[in-house]
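User: Quick sanity check before I run a bigger batch. Here is a single chain. Can you write out its predicted 3D structure?
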Amino acid sequence: MRSRRTVALTLVVIAAGATTGCGSSAGVTLLGDPSGYLLSLSQLTSPDFTVYQAVGPVGAGWLDPGSAAALTKDGWTRAAEVEYYRAVPFATSNGPITLTVAVAGFATSGDAAAAMTRLDTALDARSGAEPASTGSLRDSHAITVEGVVQDVQAVELIVVWRVNNLVNSLVAEGRLGGLQLTQLLPMATTQSANELRS
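Assistant: Done. Predicted structure follows.
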């Protein structure tokens, strides 16, 4: 698990490419600090989240440690991450329990596209991966693996998308059936808007 919580499972959704309607342009390089693009607490779709891990820098292996060295060669420059948590009963929860949001900057849009391909391949190779639909995210890829936590079926969703030279990730953990990809897509769109406003 990416958080320090004990949810022992892996469901991965990889969405390669910009979100629909983002207006991403390959010729524009976004140079702001990645921490300034992250979803804020007030932008989350549920009001009962708290900050579990404050905004801070992370390395090139923020999403897949085994890809860190290769991503650095792909032009990775810096990244930032924040983790949110909802103190709700896991067995009856709807939506995510933990939500980890990250933005990684790359030197160029081409570098970010290469990084997306690398991450897509690495995450697709995880044990037990099965294809799944990524809904309204275009140019997307999805794999799923389910697990059990406290005798309850659990799920983790990872959404990865690119806006110009930025690679974004959204990692959500929750109860199977209570956590849906459709709950994450509006947040991905909001983070994209944060980036395109810069």
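Residues 33 and 69 are 21 Å apart (CA to CA).

User: Great, the batch can go ahead then.
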